[in-house]
Amino acid sequence: MYYRIRNLREDKDLSQEQLAKLLNVSQTTYSRYETGHIDIPSQSLIKLAQYYSTSVDYLLNLTDIKVRYGKNK
After folding, report:
1. What predicted TM-score, i.e. pTM, was given to this entire model?
2. CATH 3.40.190.10: does it fit domain 3-59?
3. Is 33:44 a contact under the CB 8 Å cutoff?
4. pLDDT digits (tens, 9 = 90+) for 5-28
5. For residue 35, how many other CB atoms are within 10 A of its CB?
6. With CB atoms counted within 10 Å of each terminal CB, which end of the chain scores lower, N or C?
7. For the HTH cro/C1-type domain, which residue ranges apply (predicted)?
8. How far apart are CA 11 and CA 19, in angstroms?
C-alpha cells in the first residue's frame, strides 16, 4: 500500500531503522507502515513528505507528481 515510502527510502540508501528513528517509532512499526499492515499517522506522513521534499499526496499515491506543491522542478 505504501510502496512509495519504501521506494524513496531505498533510493536514498536508507535503512528502515534510520527512518524509524526520524519518526520516533520502532523498526517493526516502520516496517508495518511500508507493508500497509498499519496506517501511517498523519503527522508521520507529513514528516516523511518534508524529509523527502515531496507531498503527502505523492506518498499516498494520489498523484504521480513527486515535487512538493509550490516547488520548482
Report:
1. 0.87
2. no
3. yes
4. 999 999 999 999 999 999 999 999
5. 12
6. C
7. 5-59
8. 13
